Amino acid sequence: MKKTKVLLISPTRGLANGNPKTPKFQSHPLGLLYIAALLEERGYKVEILEGYSFGYDLDRIREGIRRSRPRGIGLTAMTILSPSAYLVAEEAKRIDPSIITVMGGPHATAMSQEALKRGSIDVAILGEGEEAMLEVCETIDDGRRDFNSIKGIWYKEGGETRETEKRPPLLDVDKLPHPAYHLLSDMDKYNPPPHWGKRGKFAAMITSRGCPYGCIFCSVTRAWGRRYRYRSPQNVLDELIFLKERYGVKYISFRDSTLTLLKERVIDICEDMIDARLDIKWNCNSRANEVDRSLLKIMREAGCESIQYGIECGNADMLKKFKRLDRDIVADAVSMTKRSGIRAHGYFMLGLPGETMKTIRETIDFAKSLPLYSAGFTTATPFPGSELWDYSLENNLIVTKDFSRYDLKNIPVTLYPNLKPDEILGSQKRAFREFYLRPKILAYHLSSIKNFNDLRNYINEALINLK
Ligand code: B12
Ligand code: SF4
């Protein structure tokens, strides 16, 4: 039996408004690379069309579909990319109505029915996609269109949308093949955001799935579940060695929701990196309550250059409510990080429920009081799949469901009685200016500009945040 040929596509932002955009910063599409790896392992021919990262226009995407002539198309989409994903699916059906269109990623997980009702998506996959996508392909191979036995999907049947039984989370994540990096046309073209601290040739990696915390603004919990599932240190080391030997990678960005949840595991990974003399530098996400001096010390020895902490609020009550953190714990973690020789980046969010101009001021002041190397300020956005989305819907706070505007830097998409959207957006710009336009911070950053690319990235970051 001939195996289905699959084309995996990340749709370009802005495609549906006729205004395709190339993002200033990109990272390797790990979701598609994982799906591709499992399909290839099972004998499927897979291609990847990276519209999102390289800003392909509709003609380029159409041409890619025509050239590839797939039987199945897999689209990935964060919420902001969902209008583009629907358009690409429509185009695919126009080119060949027999193509089966599958959509996965955060938006398809949270808004599966919307995805199907928009017309051209046949199957929406919820959460982890590797095994479900494989089963969809096997069903297509058989010439069947009976998706009912595949767990964890929504699909269309006779004009109706149907949901199948829930798929349990994949517990043994070690059994997944490593991401299929070889399918990218050029892995060197990826230029991650400056706060990831990239130095030299870079790749992204993820060592765990799921997050137990359940912060209200985050849609990761619903997509990946609360159960933390993780790869063994040996499996992580194998991928690091592969990336170094095969691609000459010198810098890794760990994209785990939080890398440091299990201290002993991180220590094991770090010890392995040190023993293998990998000489790879890296960055990761963490939470302030998870680090201590000894952990940070070994992370530094293993090459950790920078840690991103989700801090979000400066007001003590909001910090407790939304992050289950105390200001002292945050301050200690950031200071210890700096003392360990690691740069700390803080993520802050303005406009969470209950926010006032006073609490925004507290957030800006708190950010400035911490020994952070860099900080990002975003406007709170209710992504479908998050508790904030449910809360905002229930309280009629959502002003638009034009998902192309859900990007954390735009005018807020919620309307609170006591805080205007432009006050939040104005505060975001002010926060950025106040944080960075300090002699100490400017000096740090100017001294770390080593080449033209660094300079361009800093200018781009400033433009995105101030425009
Ligand atoms: C790396 C990353 C980025 C990278 C690039 C991502 C990429 N090319 O894939 C960059 C830095 C560019 C980025 C940008 C943004 N990001 Co981002 N990002 C992430 C991050 C940290 C990791 C993504 C990842 O690689 N995961 C690992 C892979 C293996 O998982 P995955 O992608 O989810 O894929 C699995 C499933 O979702 C599913 N799946 C995914 N695609 C498909 C496709 C098919 C066909 C199938 C079957 C299954 C499937 O199967 C995969 C394997 O199991 C996530 C948080 C997280 N922990 O997931 C946020 C996250 C995806 N980002 C988010 C957001 C909001 C953004 C921004 C919009 C805003 C911002 N400032 O961060 C911007 C875009 C801005 C713009 N102007 O365009 C949100 C998305 C929420 C939502 N519902 O939309 C997330 C979930 C963060 C969060 N906590 O809320 N991001
Ligand atoms: S914001 Fe981070 S810590 Fe909170 S639930 Fe999401 S991934 Fe977990």
Explained architecture:
The protein has helices at residues 30-41, 51-54, 58-68, 82-95, 106-110, 112-117, 130-141, 220-224, 233-247, 263-275, 293-301, 316-323, 327-339, 357-369, 387-394, 421-436, 439-447, 452-466; strands at 5-10, 45-50, 72-76, 100-104, 123-125, 153-157, 160-163, 202-205, 208-209, 229-230, 251-254, 281-286, 304-312, 343-350, 374-379. The protein is of the alpha/beta class and 467 residues long. It has two domains: 5-163, Cobalamin-binding domain (Rossmann fold, 3-Layer(aba) Sandwich); 192-466, tm_1862 like domain (pyruvate-formate lyase- activating enzyme), CATH 3.80.30.20. The strands form three sheets. Strands 2-1-3-4-5-6-7 form a seven-stranded mixed beta sheet, sandwiched between helices. Strands 8-11-12-13-14-15 form a six-stranded parallel beta sheet. The protein has a two-stranded antiparallel sheet with strand order 9-10. Helix 3 (58-68) crosses helix 4 (82-95). The longest helix has 16 residues, at 421-436. The chain is globular. The protein binds cobalamin (B12) and iron/sulfur cluster. Residues 211, 213-215, 218, 220-221, 257-258, 287, 310 line the site of iron/sulfur cluster (SF4).
